[in-house]
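Archive transcription. Copying these from loose printouts into the bound notebook so they stop getting lost. Printout 1 of 2:
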Amino acid sequence: MFFDRPESGERAVLVHLDLASEAQREDPREFEELVLSAGGDPAAYIMGTRAAPSARTFVGSGKLEEVAGAVRHNDAEVVIFNHALSPSQERNLERELSCRVLDRTGLILDIFAQRARTHEGKLQVELAQLEHMSTRLVRGWTHLERQKGGIGLRGPGETQLETDRRLLRARIKSIRGRLEKVRRQREQGRRSRRRAEVPTVSLVGYTNAGKSTLFNRLTDASVYAADQLFATLDPTLRRIDLDNVGPAVLADTVGFIAHLPHKLVEAFKATLEETLNADLLLHVVDAADSEREHNTRQVQDVLAEIGAGDIPQLEVYNKLDLLQRPARIDRDGDGRPQRVWLSAHTGEGAGLLLEAVAELVGEDMVTEELRLAPDQGGLRAALYSLGAVEAENYGEDGVAQLSVRLPRADWNRLMKKGPEPLF
């Protein structure tokens, strides 16, 4: 016996279990924030402890009765679990509770569906939703056992369930093809930036750490920023100018979360490639969050999962205005910037961050004092075209004395062409 799912489910009963396995534990406070971000109205929060989930309904029979009582008492339309449920567990729970049941992955997908603004973002969300749904297509329609055929069309036919699965597979294939086209376009843009030796700096961090606010502060952009989880889904690229380095590209990306569902990592591959191809990652941390150490570890886990664990990082401790501490740069034993403390909201420390980024991105820069003979005008013109000349003077013998700073790759390319400068 199945019921028709309601189109809306605002009043929610939340269910969270503390499981014996550390790997399966979720944060109950963050779970409530996720529900609120999705537009839900938590009517009851049921918590419990269990050594291992029940194979049939995830919770035990006693806890199931408690959840059912909360649903009836609060006229709840949806029960949301802070865990990943198998399709059979979700089905069994819906049958027992007579209302819609959503797991953690479905909840995050719902938030993503609300936040996606660009065509690409909507495609990525739809792909993740369809792949999640494909494992949950299990019931046939009550009004139609098999498609009816006319004269010459009779036969075994296919059940409505089989038709739905076939249409799902076709739609998934279509979306993947379109996202592959987007991925190729992005890769073409990245190749152009690499040829132009323009470094890419990508913002990463736990969701709601303040990445978009910092992005707007550094680039004077107007990216949507809000005090809610997953406010940003669509990657945004803007140019910034770094002292002694020149132009660079700053990328704002989707926030990470503990146990980010694999379906989302796979669907958002085109977006996450902006992180994979960055020269430097700015790991934005909410300095005022009591869970900041845990969140930092979760971000490192996701970076390792997508293959970005070895990219150089600069930690950015944001929301310093809530701690009332001065902005500063922390350096390691070699004097390299390791951590920057700032407030994206007030702007305090933003200049220090750009200074630290310029130092790290500019580490592979060559600074030289050159002497060019009058017949080396071609090399002089090439240096000027790269914007590498910082100062120029002429001696009485007509020799040009240049102070230059440029990426090592450009320097090596110019030196191969010759003739060599007099130095």
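Printout 2 of 2:
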Amino acid sequence: MPRALDILLVLLAAPIWLPLAAAAALLVRLRMGRPVIFRQVRPGLHARPFTLLKFRTMRPGAEPDAERLTPFGRWLRRTSLDELPELFNVLRGEMSLVGPRPLLPEYLPRYTPEQARRHEVRPGITGWAQVHGRNAVTWEEKLRLDVWYVDHRGMWLDLRILAMTAWQVLRCRGVNATGHATMPEFGGRSDGETDARQ
């Protein structure tokens, strides 16, 4: 999505998302304490690292993600409210509203050359893979959809994805893969077994 359109849409929607973000931040603080914001380095455009911002949904600890995910955190994820801080990543130019989701840095050497093309555009809050199953599809399919988006991206497709995303959020579908807090770890050509935050 063009940078100017990203900024325009985020600012136009600010009267809606800013109060929601403030309310979510307060609830996270009251229910889980500090920190309210989860920060994690992710690869962005051309795989350059940036700090992703999300509302915290897990308790600290060494247990698997599924055990640390709180009931309130699960609700935040199901409603996608945990993603609201990423709008600040969009305003800073690190992300776009639409694009492949930013994954973990350790996945970079595991991509095939074709899969690595997902980094030819800014990562997005939502994307073509998210409106076609989100975390309920396999890694192979998700990355294929990301590359399809890179090859077919344009303003009208981006607006279509945003409209489809609104419907997906209302349905609360595809938030996690079966048996995982989100998705199993991407292991390259075959999936791994450890949960990875998306």
